[in-house]
Amino acid sequence: MKPNKTCGNCSNNFFKKNLARWTDTINTHLTNILKKLSCPTELKKSVDYSLMAGGKRIRPILCLAWAEMLGLEKNKILNFACGLEFIHTYSLIHDDLPSMDNDDLRRGKPTNHKVFGEAMAILAGDALLTQSFELMANNPIKPNYILEAILQVSIAAGPQGMVGGQVLDLSLENQRQTSLSQIQEMHRLKTGALLEVACVSGAILAQEVGASKTDIKNASIYGRNIGLAFQIVDDILDVIGDENVLGKPVGSDIRQGKSTYPSLVGLEESYNLAQKIIQNALESLQNYKGNTKIFLEDLANYIIERAH
Amino acid sequence: MKPNKTCGNCSNNFFKKNLARWTDTINTHLTNILKKLSCPTELKKSVDYSLMAGGKRIRPILCLAWAEMLGLEKNKILNFACGLEFIHTYSLIHDDLPSMDNDDLRRGKPTNHKVFGEAMAILAGDALLTQSFELMANNPIKPNYILEAILQVSIAAGPQGMVGGQVLDLSLENQRQTSLSQIQEMHRLKTGALLEVACVSGAILAQEVGASKTDIKNASIYGRNIGLAFQIVDDILDVIGDENVLGKPVGSDIRQGKSTYPSLVGLEESYNLAQKIIQNALESLQNYKGNTKIFLEDLANYIIERAH
């Protein structure tokens, strides 16, 4: 089953099957978590609706993969990894709200507030965010490592990170001219911080089996560059993507007058930039080996391939 | 400065000065936390506006007082205690939103969304909730105790606790007839769970200096009863209170057709019930001694005295 590294297609198919396996692992655990959740029925439905709407589970997968590559048995931190998906899902629900981005569709389905109303959507987000910390606090790993990971996640997801990024995003929308550095800062906070901390927290938790500060640093470099490339490709796909594949309308950035990488530096240069950034991510993996290392390499390359 | 226990007025004045000192401690630390917060200016203003709007800081005080009574130096857990106030403040901002309770005033001032708009109010709440866990994760206490406390707080504040309580509250508003047990369940989750876990987390953290499971149990009994009494008195004050003292309109429960303790069992019986419940809280303190024990007794009695 080792991929033929000279054949792009085989390698790609191998990766996709592998990715689907990781996604299944997360989905199974998310389903178990939801089964055990005891709360008002309508709230549970609303949480379930958005959590199980078919995301790729990139954040928990990054956390698990980094931990596994560094030697940690991934079943030990499934709760923690799923906590990251809870945070991601809450942020999508709140971002879609009428007072924010006012989106009607998410992954091809009506957004949470369209189905459950605004109050329940806000509360489902609050519930997911709060429960994410319950999940992260509850893993059979030494408490000091869990605490260190929780601290990093809360910083990355909070006012200095993701929430701050959403504030910047809203303020940039009301601005006539936006510079590339403003866009970069916004993306770094809004989507980059959580992707980075997903890798970093995996490495922090892998200290349980001897991971070092250098490993944590490498996870940080990988995660930061993945996040940046991901956003550039997202911007590219908003110009050249297929609505049916993306599950959301293309061209919305242009219609909303948003500054994006393509609108600021052009499609070609955006693509080159993304490729350079993925190269930085790949370099952070050079000291590791094994199947999970190959998976993380493939994942980095896959991000670029989406833009083809 | 020891209070004359035979004179209610002296004792009350002594308590109020004492309470003000505890509140000052929390306010000073909250100010320090905000000073260090680096995030977009408008977000910081919005967070600051609600956090420093003059709350009594009951939750952090309960946490500190329980910890101190059990022998823990309270300066060690100031971050943790302030995290509880962050959670309380986020819940007030979100509860006030137009799609929720649609309140224009809070503590005599325009609500957060009235000043900063709905999007920023939602994000300020999200920021406070997320940062609360950063604060709780960061205290010079053994990681296993911090983690245990964080776990309990996240359960109490999440879908099985406070968020679930707000969902019940909204659903009861749309219901013609409400039973006392439904109201009790709603209050237990919406306000009771966080008050209880404030005491419980103080006792959990005091395991650092030898506090026992029995101490944690006592903190739980005290907190649960304080919370219940607090809500009954709140309902009473909505009938007989002074608008200027409360900083919010009285009679709003009746106008909104909400079922309350007075509307369901009458004023007199509500008052008797609150007194009985406070007695339960006081009994949980009987094995302790010292000034902080007296302070916690006074605090319990003070809740009832508000209703006079």
TrEMBL record, chains A, B:
Cofactor entry: Mg(2+)
Keywords associated with the record: Isoprene biosynthesis, Magnesium, Metal-binding, Transferase
GO cellular component: cytoplasm
GO terms for biological process, alphabetical: terpenoid biosynthetic process
Gene3D superfamilies per UniProt: Farnesyl Diphosphate Synthase
GO molecular function: metal ion binding; prenyltransferase activity
Protein name per UniProt: Geranylgeranyl diphosphate synthase, type II
Source organism of the structure: Desulfonauticus submarinus
